[in-house]
Amino acid sequence: MAETMHALVYHGTNDLRLEERPLPQIRDPRDAIVKVELSSICASDLHIRNGAVPRALPGTVLGHEFVGEVVATGSEVRKVRPGQRVAANVETFCGTCWFCRQGYVNNCRHGGWELGCRIDGCQTEYVRVPFADNGLDPIPDSLSYQDVLLVGDVLASGYFGAELAAIRPGDSVAVLGAGPVGLCAMQCARLFGPAQVIAVDILPSRLHLARERGYADLALDAAADDVEARILDATGGLGADAVIECAGGHDTFQTAWKVARPNATVAVVAMYEEAQSLPLHLMYGKNLTFRTGGVDATHSAELIRLIERGRIDTNPLITHSLPLNKILEGYRIFEQRQDDCIKCAITPWKR
């Protein structure tokens, strides 16, 4: 085996470079080393590149969405073994601190969003995964790498959004943003038995996919439709019972609370690059509940089971694929949504 590998490294705002890096090594008995078989580019990677994530460390290999094969484990790893196919969680968590014991793993005192932000991530050939028993889930033989590629981040985020929204059977659910997280949130919202799911976006191709695949019952183009009026009309003049804001646009947070009915829950899982205002004087009488969060990695194993049972399918979201050699081209395609790109999978380095 070679002693170096190819990796995409963050060096500062708008400075990403393909470089050679030493192969990762076991540093802690709870570590695992995973050979990356498939990874993906996330909007969070763009936020880092754009300088919108101050905690991101220059010199770090980017990426946190991946699946692969375990090649080595530390002496205390019990859940996975070399040769096993695994899906990775975006969140690194110890499982023993106060936050982990309460189930708040993305606030772990010894982890959180580490991979591809503060420690080397997966847009490379091999990656070290700390706390591997928490950060990796075995892939059943019946599923491919692509089937579960999005489990640990965008699908987990979509599920967390649906969970935060406190959806009840018969509810009307509005999902703002029909990007990767939003499309996942729509599928996950279905699991809670709503009467209807309403998708809102500005890209007709994504709205078409949401309707065509049955993720949404009603698709609204925010650039052409009066979204507030259409949602009021679709809900008997009440507004949405639950709103999941996945878009992170300059005005989508305002839209989220405006389309919610009084006493509704608004779940915000979007990542914003700019500060948002909370106009309490305007929303005072609506008695809204706001719940925020990014991703909850505790549901990954259950999400894999749901995929295996055919309840969730994220394959339609993976529209493009490029080898690691061309990952910078992949960033451009993903960011510009070229050729209706939703997610761009990155395959191993083409030799």
Summarize the structure.
It is built from eleven helices and 18 strands. With 351 residues, it is an alpha/beta fold.
| H-E order | EEEHEEEEHEEHEHEHEHEHEHEHEHEHE
Binned strand content: 25-35%
CATH architecture of the largest domain: Alpha-Beta Complex
| Rg (CA only) | 20 Å
How many domains? The number is 2
Q: Can you tell me the CATH class of the largest domain? A: Alpha Beta
InterPro entries: ADH-like_C, ADH-like_N, ADH_Zn_CS, ER, GroES-like_sf, NAD(P)-bd_dom_sf
Cofactor: Zn(2+)
Pfam family, one: ADH_N
Keywords: Metal-binding, Oxidoreductase, Zinc
Topology diagram in text:
Blueprint: E1 4-12, E2 15-22, E3 32-40, H1 43-49, E4 60-61, E5 65-73, E6 85-88, E7 91-92, H2 98-101, E8 112-113, E9 126-129, H3 132-135, E10 136-138, H4 151-164, E11 172-176, H5 180-190, E12 196-201, H6 204-212, E13 218-221, H7 227-234, E14 240-245, H8 252-259, E15 260-268, H9 280-283, E16 289-292, H10 300-308, E17 318-323, H11 327-336, E18 343-347
Parallel strand pairs: 11-12, 11-14, 12-13, 14-15, 15-16, 17-18
Antiparallel strand pairs: 1-2, 1-4, 3-5, 3-9, 3-18, 5-6, 6-10, 7-8
Structure notes:
The chain has 351 residues and is α/β, with parallel strands linked by helices. It has two domains: 4-150 and 314-347, Medium-chain alcohol dehydrogenases, catalytic domain (Quinone Oxidoreductase, Chain A, domain 1, Alpha-Beta Complex), CATH 3.90.180; 157-292, 3-Layer(aba) Sandwich (Rossmann fold), CATH 3.40.50. It has eleven helices and 18 strands. The protein has helices at residues 43-49, 98-101, 132-135, 151-164, 180-190, 204-212, 227-234, 252-259, 280-283, 300-308, 327-336; strands at residues 4-12, 15-22, 32-40, 60-61, 65-73, 85-88, 91-92, 112-113, 126-129, 136-138, 172-176, 196-201, 218-221, 240-245, 260-268, 289-292, 318-323, 343-347. The strands form four sheets. Strands 3, 5, 6, 9, 10, 17 and 18 form a seven-stranded mixed beta sheet that branches. Helix 9 (280-283) links the parallel strand 15 and strand 16 (289-292).
